[in-house]
Every structure is written in structure tokens, then in C-alpha cells.
Amino acid sequence: MLEVSGLDASIGAVEILHGIDLTVAKGETVCLIGANGAGKSTLMRSIAGLLTRVRGAIRLDGTDIAGLPAEAVVRRGVSLVPEGRQVFVPLTVRENLQMGAYSRPRARQAEVDADLDFVMGLFPKLKQRLEQVAGTLSGGEQQMLAIGRSLMSRPRLLLLDEPSLGLAPKVVAEIFDTIAALGAQGTSILLAEQNANMAFHIATRGYVLSEGRRTLHGSTQALAGDAGVRQAYLGV
Q1: Domain total for the chain?
Q2: Is this prediction's pTM over 0.90?
């Protein structure tokens, strides 16, 4: 479904990514692990169309989308849940979720309402806070809202950038259970995550990034058994 090949990406005059190759099959969950500054967020933003200073190919279903603006990428079925959540804090939970459907201007209200019900089923806590201003939510609730907002665009490929960042362990477990459920329902997922233990539990394959380069790739089972990965990312 997604094929990234020879991807270089720059922010200003600084080149962050160097020749990245990566694939995600239809219905597959793939993880990216690496330390802060490894290039995970830059890769996710490049795929999502938020960075246009890229070289190489980003193919979605065989069509190169590298350099397309973010709105065009979303309309092709790719949605990013950004690092730090970035909800619209002055808007209510309902309004945030409705904003997620902006890429579907021809959708009937009944379809949008059905998608809203689907998100409420995934995150019952949000149902209790639909008219609450998003800026007053807890960090975990904001992360649920950010994921729900992305799902409102009906993505075929969901990009999740550090969904566990700054959250309590109980909330992290809840969030990852939901991500696993989405994968089981057939959504293709690319997950960038420092919490390698959690990522390895729900992904089938993984990539390790270091200083903007792909250093390792394989099944999550193989990566979890690698001595370097165990020492650097699993605390073993």
C-alpha cells in the first residue's frame, strides 16, 4: 500500500532523512522506533505532505505522492495523528471531530454522524465530553480526540506519531488496545514510537531509525531479540 524509497528530507538547510526505504502492506501494522532526533517525526510528516522539501518516492497504491500538499494526501486516504496531539483547544470535542471530516465535503450528514458514533464506541470517555472545550481535557483524552479526529477522514493508512508521549501507563495501555483493534479491523498503520515494548506487541514488522538513517528492519519478534535493540530500546 505504501512504499517509500530513497527518501531524503530537509528542514531548512538541514537534511534530516537520508535514503529511507520502507513499506507498509494493506492491513499491516508497522512500527518505527528510534531515539529523539532519529527522524521518526520527519518521516511521518514527509509522508503526510507536511514537508515538501523531499527527494525520492512516496508511493501510495503505486502513485507517487511525494511533494503533494497535505490536503491532497488526506484525500487519498492518509491521515496523521501528530506528535503532541495538536487538538484545536478553543473548540469543543464535537467540533474537533467534525473538523476531521473536512476532507469529505460531499459526505452526507448521516455518514458523518455514523463515523462520530464509531469514534464514540472506540473512546466512550469522549462521548461524555462532546460539548467540552478540548483544551480542558486531560492529556490522555486529548490523545483519544486526536486519533478520533483522524479517523473521521476514513483513512486507509493511519500515521501515529508518538501516541504514548507524556501519558500515564494505564492510559497508554488503553490507547494501544484501541490501535490494535483498528489494525484488526483492516486499517493499515504506521506507528512511530519510543516505547518499543508497546510497539512490538501490536506491530508485525519494524524499522529502527538512527540519525535519519534506517539501521535495522525485520519482524518485531526478530528486532526484540536483537542485542542492540534490547539494550538501546527495551532496557535489557
Answers
A1: 1
A2: yes
